[in-house]
Structure formats: C-alpha cells, structure tokens
C-alpha cells in the first residue's frame, strides 16, 4: 500500500480518481493499492516563543534564538492566546494513520518551495522514516498527472528545495518575532509588526508617498502648433518651457504673426520590439492590476482556481520560459483557442509555421515553466476567471508572434526662431502588437501619423496655443507598480557594486508577494485610495522608526533571496545562512530596542459614559479602561481613519468635524458628522444639502 499526500482535498480527489482510489473515508480516499490524503495548507509550523517558555514581551528575553527550533501543530488565536487548531489536529492524526498503514509515501503537495515545506514539516513532526518519492507536475490535467506518476522522482532530489523553504521559514521567524517584540517594547505602547520582507516593502511605499507629498509642483508653459498637410492633421510642441505665462503669450503672438514653421531636421529610424515572454505570476498580477484593477491576492486566487479546474498550468511560477521538450505541444494549445469566442479573432492573426521560439530556454526554466493554458477547453468560467484566462491565452499568442517593426521619425521645426519638435510613427510589420491591435503601451506618449515631410518644407500654422503644464511628482505606487519595485528591488540600490550583483534579484518571491502586500493591509500599515497604495499614520510611524535601520534595507533582503536561491540549487550552505540570520536578528533587536516611535500627543479625555475614568487612545480604538463601563469607539469608521482631533471633538463637544469620503456597505461614498447622544452612543448626522433648483 502506498500513501499519497496532496496539499488540498480537491487535488487529492483528482489524483485519487485517476488512480482508482474511489472509496471515501474520513479525511482520505482508498483503493487500488493507494491511500490518498491531504494537508490543509501548513498543518505544522515553527513553535511560538511561549513554547520555549517565553511569554509576553520581555526585554531581557531578547533576542530569542531557538536551538533547536521546535515544530508544533498550527495554532489559531482564541481570546488573547493561541491554541491548537482542532481541524489541523484531526487531519494530522488522519495523515499519521494513513502513513502508518502504508509502506512508502508519494509527495503530491504543490511543486514548489512552500509545497515541499508543508510535507517535510509534517514528515519531521510525525518522526516518520518511511521512504518517499516526489510527484512533480505543472498542471492538473489527466495527461500531466499520468506523466508525473510515470516519472516519479527521488525525494532526496528536493532536499535543496526543502532546506531553502526551511531557511526562509526560520529567517522569517527570527526577524519577525524579535524585531516586532523589540520595537513594541521600545515604543512603550501598542503592538508593532516587522518582517524580513514586509518591512522593506513598507519602506518602499512610505518613501514614495513622502517623495510625492513633499514634491513642489511648478507650473510651466509650452506652445503647441497645429498643422495640416496632405489631409493629415498633426501637432508640434516647443522645446522651450517658460516659467512666465506673459513671456509665453508674447512669444505666441509673434509666432502667430509669422504664420509658418519650417522643417529644419529630420531623423528616421527603424525600431524592432520583440514580443513579450510568457507570464510568470508577478507579471500576471501586474497586468491584471493595470487592466482590471485586481489586487495581487485576487489574481493569485483566480489563477489558483483556474489551475485546480485544469484550465491553466501551475500559477506560482517565477519563470517566463518553457523547456525545449514542450515546444511540440504548443500548436495544439493554440488550435484549441479557435473554439473560444474571445480568442478566435486573435488566433486568426497568428502565422502558422512561423512561431517565434523566444520562449524556449531550458536554462531559464526554474521549478516551473511560464504560465500556459492547458489542452482542456474552458467552460462555465466566472467573469473574473474569463478575464485572467484570456490574459494568459492572449499572452501566449503574442509570445509566439513575430517582432513588431516601426519606423519612428523625429522632426525638428522652427517658428520665429523657436525650436519645435514632433514625433511620428509608421507600422512596418504589426507582429505581436497586431494580436490585440494596440501599437503603443498605455503609459507611453501617443505617437501620431505624419504626412511626407522633408527638410526645408514650409508648414502653415492652423492653430497656435499656450499649454499650461505642471511638473509631476513621483507617482504613488499601485499594486502593479509595487510588484515591479519588489521584483526589481536590486536595480534600485544606490551602491553600484551591490546593484550589479543584485540586478536580477527581487524581494519576496512570485508566490509570496501577494501575501506580503495583504499583510501590510492587515497590520493597518497601508490603505487603498482608488488604485494607489497609501501608508496609514501607523505605517508612517513604523517607517519613521526603522527607515535608517538594517531591517528596512532592500539590498540586504535581496541578498537573502539570492542566498535562499543558492541553497535551493545546492550551491550554498543552509547552516551558514542560519548562523548569519541569528547574527542579524541579534543586531536588529539591539538596534530596535534603542529606537522610539514618535506618537501623537494624546489628549486627556474623560470617558463620556462613566464620567470617571480617563480614556485610552490607541491606534485602532479609543476605550474606557473600566471593564464595567467598557465604552469603545473604533478609530476607523466606514473606511476613514479618525484623527486625535476628531476623537477629542466627539468626546468633549459631542460632534466631530465633517468626515468626508466614508463608504457605505453598498460601496457608495458619503460625508457626515459623527455625533454622540447623552448615553454616549454615536450615530451619523448628514450634512445639510441645499435643494437643487429645478
């Protein structure tokens, strides 16, 4: 009898059906010589400080450096403490019984670093010594699963992957536990969370936000000329930028009197744009955020659903390539798309027999190849699944197409001794851009078509006008922008040698970046404002405390990612990495224990309900310390954070100033005052609106 351990019940059922293990039992399936069971994510993890006898936050106990680390069943928060998750305990007991009855194990958890860690921690916790093999597949189609079982790999082949996962797990524990406790202790009140990747990511958001906020916007003026030749309208723009509107207006009058512009320079060059590669997970998340405003986590969840329904390959991939032996399967995938209405037109533009092989590269395929559709034709997809599926399908068609060739023309004009410029574009070969029919990127300047022009041509000026413009601050991060910054963190490093060494290294991995961003939301460190990511007051407090500390150092975090990759490839020693992390955790703990958090000056406010105790003003709530009274006011109301001044007005005057931009349950925005009655109960008072005139 063989035991098979999958990561989720749905995957276990697929495998069991294929193997003929169709008899259902509590927590597993049995039949045909197999018992198929499943984990429920991370059933086992690293023990918490209290498991080592360290309860609460104690300055003298830091840094906590477990030796050895203990494993424990997953815990959940209950009241103010953590207790074992009963569901996890039950399933772990079932896995232990299944393994006990079997001679060997086939590991079928997700084929990646975290999937490997999920199984190995269970295996280690149960003190199991039975031999195991690895099922390594990139899709859940029947064909892929069969091929995987025909080519089971030795479990030891993935020891490097496990050591990398274990190293990441322990590093996150050492940094997260020690740094969070140290900052919380030094702050004096409140609990602050720091993390190995979480904190550098917060630093990226806060730094960009402050650069944007502190940017001094300046007005400037340019002159635009409109021309027409050979039935083609086009525009040119002055090279000169005026700070003074009057000077720009005076120049405009002179140009209008002159009435013509002369072509003084002309340069034409041919530009070749190679097609994009396949999506990796981060690329898909960026595209989905730009095109459909999906969050990184939403995109991952939709892609995971498509994967489990067998419509796409494994989504948590960091590669944009496929291996040579998969190339022969590509034509059939493209042919399948002809049956899909949303893709049929695009498939018609693909040049059969002339597929571009840029995506084929054995060396650049990591654990998994780039994201692909499978041979299974989609049916009954949700609206969101349709969007993501079509993105992956169209990207495949683009990747297989030829390069787009453009003729770009830069032209210089002169009008009344002032230089003007314009740029034209002519598509020579549409190539991959013809798949969607978009010939420029959305974030690039539009390029106009031009008539035939040559140096010396006189162009009449149809219209001349002064454009008022403003200098633009650094743009706030969207999730797409933040994912790019995380992916390319190494390129942003100031030190040139470090930048060269880390240019292809990011912070986090494609599989974890969405959860890192979501953690910042859960910690109340950032919030969304339309599509932009904005730090909260608490987030800025933390950034102010750690921005010059090692824990916020993007370069160091990128170096760790590189070290973990080397461990995975058996090119670096996991024990040496762990010792380095212990040294680092010790350093940042001492550094943070000497760091304070700048707090708002808290007013002394008497509880409006019991009239006797002084209120406690915390980041998330304002409350009376008397449990018999238990008056409480949340600091965030309908999505809008309340300032200390708002709280002070509410408690002392019974009414806040007008709070703008609150959001109702139905998603509609509204403005209102928060008011308090004699019983210290709060409600909304809506602003008086003047009746509209008919």
Automatic annotation (TrEMBL):
Q: Which UniProt keywords apply?
A: DNA-binding, Isomerase, Topoisomerase
Q: Does the keyword DNA-binding apply?
A: yes
Q: Which residues form the Toprim domain?
A: 1-141
Q: Where is the Topo IA-type catalytic domain?
A: 158-589
Q: Which reaction does it catalyse?
A: ATP-independent breakage of single-stranded DNA, followed by passage and rejoining
Look up the record and report any one GO term of the cellular component aspect: cytoplasmic replication fork
Quote the EC number: 5.6.2.1
Q: Does the keyword Isomerase apply?
A: yes
Question: Biological process GO annotation list?
Answer: DNA recombination; DNA repair; DNA topological change
An example of a GO molecular function for this protein is:
DNA topoisomerase type I (single strand cut, ATP-independent) activity
What family does this belong to?
Belongs to the type IA topoisomerase family.
Name the chain's protein: DNA topoisomerase
Specify the species. Answer: Parapedobacter koreensis
């Amino acid at each position: 009898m063989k035991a098979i351990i999958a990561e989720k019940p749905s995957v276990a059922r697929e495998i069991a059906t294929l193997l003929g293990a169709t008899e259902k039992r509590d927590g597993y399936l049995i039949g045909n010589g197999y018992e198929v069971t499943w984990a429920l994510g991370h059933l086992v993890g690293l023990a918490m400080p209290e498991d080592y006898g360290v309860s609460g936050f104690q300055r003298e106990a830091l840094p906590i450096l477990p030796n050895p680390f203990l494993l424990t069943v997953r815990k959940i928060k209950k009241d103010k403490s953590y207790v074992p998750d009963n569901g996890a305990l039950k399933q772990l007991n079932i896995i232990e019984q299944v393994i006990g009855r079997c001679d060997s194990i086939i590991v079928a958890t997700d084929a990646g670093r975290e999937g490997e860690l999920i199984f190995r921690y269970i295996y280690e916790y149960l003190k199991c010594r039975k031999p195991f093999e690895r099922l390594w597949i990139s899709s859940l189609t029947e064909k892929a699963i069969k091929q995987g079982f025909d080519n089971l790999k030795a479990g030891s082949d993935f020891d490097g992957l496990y050591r990398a996962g274990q190293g990441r797990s322990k590093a996150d524990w050492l940094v997260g536990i020690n740094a969070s406790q140290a900052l919380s202790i030094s702050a004096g009140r409140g609990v602050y969370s720091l993390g190995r990747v979480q904190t550098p990511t917060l630093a990226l958001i806060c730094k960009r936000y402050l650069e944007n906020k502190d940017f001094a916007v300046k007005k400037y003026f340019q002159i635009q000329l409109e021309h027409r030749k050979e039935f083609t309208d086009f525009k040119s723009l002055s090279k000169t930028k005026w700070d003074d509107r009057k000077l720009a207006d005076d120049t405009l009058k002179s140009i209008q009197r002159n009435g013509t512009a002369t072509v003084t320079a002309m340069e034409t060059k041919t530009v070749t744009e190679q097609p994009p590669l396949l999506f990796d997970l981060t690329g898909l998340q960026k595209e989905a955020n730009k095109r459909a405003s999906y969050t990184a986590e939403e995109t991952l969840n939709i892609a995971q659903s498509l994967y489990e329904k067998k419509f796409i390959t494994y989504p948590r991939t960091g590669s944009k390539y496929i291996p040579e032996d998969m190339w022969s399967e590509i034509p059939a995938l493209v042919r399948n798309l002809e049956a899909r209405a949303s893709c049929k037109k695009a498939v018609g533009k693909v040049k059969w027999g002339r597929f571009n092989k840029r995506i084929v590269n054995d060396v650049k395929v990591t654990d998994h190849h780039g994201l692909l559709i499978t041979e299974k034709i989609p049916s009954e997809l949700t609206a969101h699944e349709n969007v993501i599926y079509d993105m992956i399908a169209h990207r495949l068609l683009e990747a297989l197409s030829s390069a787009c060739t453009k003729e770009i023309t830069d032209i210089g004009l002169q009008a009344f001794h002032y230089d003007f410029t314009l740029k034209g574009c002519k598509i020579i070969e549409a190539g991959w851009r013809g798949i969607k029919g978009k010939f420029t990127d959305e974030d690039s300047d539009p390029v106009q078509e031009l008539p035939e022009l040559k140096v010396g041509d006189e162009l009449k000026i149809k219209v001349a006008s002064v454009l008022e413009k403003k200098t633009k601050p650094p743009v706030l991060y969207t999730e797409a922008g933040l994912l790019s910054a995380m992916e390319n963190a190494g390129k942003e490093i100031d030190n040139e040698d470090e930048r060269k060494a880390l240019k292809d290294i990011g912070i986090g991995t494609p599989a974890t970046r969405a959860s890192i961003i979501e953690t910042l939301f859960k910690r109340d460190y950032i919030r969304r404002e339309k599509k932009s990511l904005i730090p909260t007051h608490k987030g800025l407090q933390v950034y102010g405390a750690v921005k010059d500390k090692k824990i916020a150092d993007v370069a160091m975090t990128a170096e760790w990612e590189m070290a973990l990759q080397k461990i995975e490839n058996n090119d670096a020693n996991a024990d040496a990495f762990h010792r380095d992390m212990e040294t680092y955790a010790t350093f940042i703990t001492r550094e943070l224990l000497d760091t304070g958090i700048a707090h708002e000056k808290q007013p002394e406010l008497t509880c409006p309900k019991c009239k006797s105790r002084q209120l406690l003003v915390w980041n998330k709530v304002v409350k009376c310390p008397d449990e018999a009274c238990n008056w409480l006011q949340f600091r965030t109301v309908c999505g809008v954070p309340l300032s200390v001044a708002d709280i002070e007005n509410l408690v002392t005057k019974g009414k806040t100033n007008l709070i703008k931009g609150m959001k109702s349950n139905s998603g509609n925005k509204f403005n209102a005052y928060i008011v308090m009655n004699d019983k210290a109960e709060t409600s909304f008072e809506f602003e008086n609106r003047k009746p509209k005139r008919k």
